[in-house]
Design a protein that fits this description.
By secondary structure, the protein is mostly helical. The chain has helices at residues 3-19, 23-26, 32-47, 54-84, 88-100, 104-130, 143-190, 202-231, 233-246, 256-266, 296-322; strands at 270-271, 274-276, 279-281, 285-286.
Length: 323
């Protein structure tokens, strides 16, 4: 964790906050994650066969993710060395690349569209917007459930779409950032518990849980800080209390931390029973003492807390770099 890396990260956070993921750019160029997906699909097609024994499938899955992480980290190292030879231009180019892998503005924009969809198009408008960011069946959601889904997505993706990539870049530079994004993409593609990926994707899923562990814990402090800025001392305390008390109620070992913190900050119940692909997932409500009915205004409040948390992280990174 060097001064230069932290200064680049601070600039990248500012760029991402202001620019986000412009549609005009990615309509003309493939996003780097597209290449990650192609590499994962290439190895999946060649190594993951239906006739494999469980142990063989798991071994091949380990080989797959180790190879993918090694190549992505090596490529990140090459890019960093290239940028280092370009002086100030290289500094800016690396900051721009890091910004591509952060998701502050794009996440807030997607979540805000859910609130706008509810206000402008009613329940169907909200369902259409939320279906773009969550995997649950939108037809099963009433208006409060649509709002909860949007807020849960905001909190979870704050951890693994903002805090985690920033953390791994700060710790290990471009090699760490690219390896993390490769792992995160692999988990989303092959880290399922379906018959095809139960064993082949086991290593990717377990490593992704491990890689997201630090960010999930850090995220509750940042969400509490964001709540302090926008909602006061009580909300900040409730965010920490709910996270420490209720994080284990979530099926994910990491997602429960930021979701519980956001639930406490907004005085809302989150999670609970929901349906994915026709299959009901029965979980208790996180932050049971909170309000049971979420509204579109709660989405707005969640975005404010989210942006407050992002601001605190940026200021903290810059402050550490200047010490």
């Amino acid at each position: 964790m060097s001064e230069t890396i932290l200064l680049i990260l601070a600039l990248a956070l500012v760029i991402d906050r202001v620019v986000g993921d412009p549609d005009w750019l990615w309509a003309r160029l493939p996003h780097p994650v597209v290449f990650f997906g192609k590499a994962i699909a290439f190895l999946d097609d060649r190594l993951n066969r239906e006739d494999l024994e469980d142990g063989a499938a798991r071994f091949r899955g380990v080989v797959t993710i180790v190879l993918l992480l090694a190549v992505s980290a090596w490529f990140g190292h090459l890019l960093h060395r290239l940028f280092a030879t370009l002086g100030p231009v290289g500094f800016l180019l690396e900051a721009a690349l890091v910004a591509v892998f952060l998701a502050q503005k794009s996440l807030a924009d997607h979540v805000r569209r859910v609130a706008e969809g509810l206000r402008q198009g009613g329940l169907e408008g909200g369902r259409a917007a939320v279906s773009m960011i969550v995997g649950r069946d939108p037809k099963t959601l009433n208006e409060p459930a649509v709002c909860r889904a949007a807020i849960e997505s905001l909190a979870e993706n704050f951890s693994d779409g903002v805090v985690a990539p920033a953390f791994w870049y700060a710790i290990a530079g471009l090699p760490g950032l690219l390896a993390y994004k490769m792992l995160n993409t692999a988990d989303s593609m092959i880290g399922h518990k379906s018959p095809k990926y139960l064993h082949f994707g086991w290593a990717s899923a377990r490593l992704d849980d491990l890689a997201n562990l630090p960010a999930a814990r850090l995220s509750i402090l940042l969400i509490a800080a964001g709540a302090l800025i926008h909602r006061g001392t009580r909300a900040a305390k409730d965010a920490l209390t709910a996270a420490l008390r209720d994080h284990g109620l979530h099926r994910s070992p990491n997602s429960g931390w930021p979701e519980a913190a956001m639930a406490g900050a907004l005085d809302l119940q989150l999670a609970g029973p929901r349906i994915y692909g026709g299959v009901k997932v029965s979980e208790p409500m996180i932050n049971g003492p909170g309000r049971a009915v979420a509204r579109s205004e709660d989405i707005d409040a969640g975005i404010a807390v989210f942006y407050g948390a992002c601001t605190v992280m940026t200021v903290f990174v810059l402050a550490v770099a200047m010490i």
